[in-house]
Amino acid sequence: QVQLVESGGGLVQPGGSLRLSCVASGVTFSRYAMSWYRQAPGKERELVASITTGGGSRNYAESVKGRFSISRDNTKNTVYLQMNSLKPDDTGVYYCVAMRGSISWGQGTQVTVSS
C-alpha cells in the first residue's frame, strides 16, 4: 500500500508563493511516477503537473506553465510543487498522486489565494 502525506498548503495573497511537499512511504519511491492534482470549488479535479521516476521529464497544465515547478528527491521519498505568482484561480485542494500500474492518492492540502 502506498501512503502519501501532503503538507505546505495555506493562505497566500495574489502574487505570492507557496511550496507543497508530499512524502511517500510503504513503497520503493523511485519506481513511481508522481503527479499533483487539484480541485477548485465547483470544478472537476484536474491534473496540475507530473514528473517521471527519475525527474527527467515534467509536464504542466497550460494554466500553470511558467509559474509552477514540480521536482522530486528520491533520497527523501518526496515530491514538491513550487508555486509562484499565485492567482485566486489557483485556490483549491491539492492532491499528491503516485503512479505505477495503478494510482494512489494522498489526503490533500488546502491552498487559498485571496487578498
Unreliable spans are: none
Q: How many β strands by DSSP?
A: 11
Question: What is the tally of helical segments?
Answer: 0
What is the straight-line distance between the termini? 40 Å
The percent range for helix content is: under 10%
Shape: globular
Q: Give Rg in angstroms.
A: 13 Å
- Percent strand: over 45%
Structural class by SSE content? mainly beta
Mean pLDDT: 96
The largest sheet is:
7 strands, mixed
Molecular structure report:
The structure is a single chain. The model has no long low-confidence stretch (mean pLDDT 96). The strands form two sheets. Strands 2, 4, 5, 6, 9, 10 and 11 form a seven-stranded mixed β-sheet that branches. Strands 1-3-8-7 form a four-stranded antiparallel β-sheet, with no helix packed on it. Strand 9 and strand 10 (103-105) form a beta hairpin. It has strands spanning 3-7, 10-12, 18-25, 33-39, 46-51, 58-60, 68-73, 78-83, 92-99, 103-105, 109-113. The chain is mainly beta and 115 residues long. 0% of the residues lie in helices and 52% in strands. It is built from no helices and eleven strands.
